[in-house]
Amino acid sequence: MSTTRVKRSRPVAKRAKAPAKRRNRIATKSRVDAFFAALPFSPATMQRVINLSVAAVLLVIGTAMAQATGVTAKVQEEWVQAVGRAGFQVRKVEVVGADRIDRIKIYDIALNQQNRSMAAVDLDALRHDLLKYGWVKDARVSRRLPETLVIDIVERAPAAVWQHEGKLTLIDADGVALERISAAMMPDLPLVIGPNANHKSKDLQVLLANADSLRELLAGATWVGNRRWDLRFESGETLALPAGDGAAREALTRFAHMDGANRLLGRGIVRFDMRDPKRFVLRLPPEGRIGKARIAADAVAAAQAADVTPGSNDEG
Question: Exposure pattern of 163-199 as b/e (b: 16+ CB <10 Å)?
């Protein structure tokens, strides 16, 4: 009796599901690919941008480290020395626009440098030093290779002489002190006297613009009490003006009209006082002056014609 062996078929193995992590990676990769595909530039361009950004960050870090360790300063110093050895050194200074100014002073400022290499010249610092010199209103500094510094100067113009504490100083229209002068060097310019009178000289010129007939007769002006002007004329008289720009302008205009009509100046009157808008007081010469009677009579006549009050007044 024969035995029949039945062959059993092997069960088909079920395909294992992909692990969850792998599925996530595939999904993430798909989203990244979709993101790059949506960009207006290619992935290669994006990679170059990233590379440049990394290089820039590394450059900044390297520069900071070089500065911290002194490498940058050493390299810069070597560069300056190399430029100088190549022949690019300051050997000439060309000054343009200097008429009244002392050129030697400009040369001294321009050449007052430890290193004459053209690469070492700090143009901004040199301009700043030039502007400290009173005569220089503005300056422009440039290099003309291989060896020349060009300095273009805008000068201040003297407008008056300031007398303070027994010293005479030229000043410009803004009251900036230019240089000390002696009495023998006194130019034909208005004289302003007193503390802060230099800063008020511009206001004085505006005031005198309202009385051109008196401007040429003026010998000097004293700024009194930091509030008002005393004007001194070449004929010897002093006119005391009130405080305040408007009051002083009105008083000076009135005095100019009276002098034009009655010739108050040149009669030997010592002082005209217009500080009080309601009273115009004049001071006569002291007792005993030669010709005092005649001068006083003329002064009284002129005062009466001008409707003023002859007499005396307190200073101030």
Answer: bbeeebbbbbeebbebbeeeeeeeeeebbbbbeebbb
Question: What confidence score (pLDDT) does residue 136 get?
Answer: 94
Cis bond before residue 146 (omega within 30° of 0): yes
List strands edge to edge, sheet with 136-144.
Answer: 92-96, 148-155, 136-144
Listed residue (216, 195, 215) closest to 205, CA to CA: 215
Q: In this structure, what DSSP letter does residue 89 have?
A: B
Burial zone of 135 (CB within 10 Å; 0-12 exposed, 13-18 middle, 19+ buried): buried
CA neighbor of 200 nearest in space, from 231, 222, 167 = 222
pLDDT score for 294: 53
Residues whose CB is less than 8 angstroms from the CB of residue 313 and which lie 6 or more positions away in sequence, other chains included: 271, 273, 281, 283
Angle between helices 123-131 and 103-110 (to 10 degrees): 140
Please provide the DSSP assignment of 115-153 as one string.
--BGGG--HHHHHHHHHTSTTEEEEEEEEETTTEEEEEE
Take residue 240 and report the two structure tokens written for it.
């005391």
What's residue 264's pLDDT? 86
pTM for this model (two decimals): 0.62
Low-confidence ranges of the chain (pLDDT < 70): 1-43, 46-47, 49, 52, 55, 58-59, 62-88, 114, 116, 287-316
Asked if 186 and 218 touch (Cβ cutoff 8 Å), the reply is no
Pair type for strands 218-224 and 158-164: unpaired
Backbone angles phi, psi at 141, to 5 degrees: -120, 135
pLDDT of residue 38: 63
Supply the Cα-derived Rg of the chain in whole angstroms.
44
Q: Which pair of tokens denotes residue 246?
A: 């408007």
